[in-house]
Amino acid sequence: MIEIDNTSLSSVRAATKAILQKSNGQVNILVNNAGIMALQKLEHAQDGFEMQFGVDHLAHFLLFELLKSALLASASPGFSSRVVNVASSAHPVTSTNESGNYNLDKIKYND
User: Which of 3, 4, 32, 105 is least buried, going by the fewest C-beta atoms within 10 A?
Assistant: First the structure.
């Protein structure tokens, strides 16, 4: 088992390295499952991003980017590599359409 702390991009990088070593570079399936939602107060991931955005989006995107070459190289005519992104159905009830507010630091929390 390889653990990833999605609050830390360095943890994602280390886990990716371990995955590639353990699998001899053979990766056919990646499932990204969103991890947290509805934070009651502003919290930050270890890299300074708003916690939910960092954990649910940036960490998964980095993991995919670091595994993309292995996913493509591992595909065969009989078995294509796959990436599945899982999310909740809560996205319609939120608004993050503030242009340029990518760190979500202007969101109103309940604190």
Answer: 3
Compute the distance between CA of residue 45 and CA of residue 53 in angstroms, rounded to an integer.
Answer: 9
The rounded distance, in Å, linking the Cα atoms of 42 and 52 is: 9
| Nearest-angstrom CA–CA distance, 16 and 67 | 7
Cβ(50)–Cβ(107) under 8 Å?
A: yes
Question: Tens digits of per-residue pLDDT, 27-44?
Answer: 999 999 877 877 788 889
Contacts of 74 (CB under 8 A, 6+ apart): 25, 26, 27, 28, 81
Q: Dmax over Cα atoms in the chain, in whole Å?
A: 53
User: Whole-model pTM?
Assistant: 0.83
- Reported in sequence order, the residue ranges of 1-79 that DSSP labels E, i.e. its strands, are 29-33
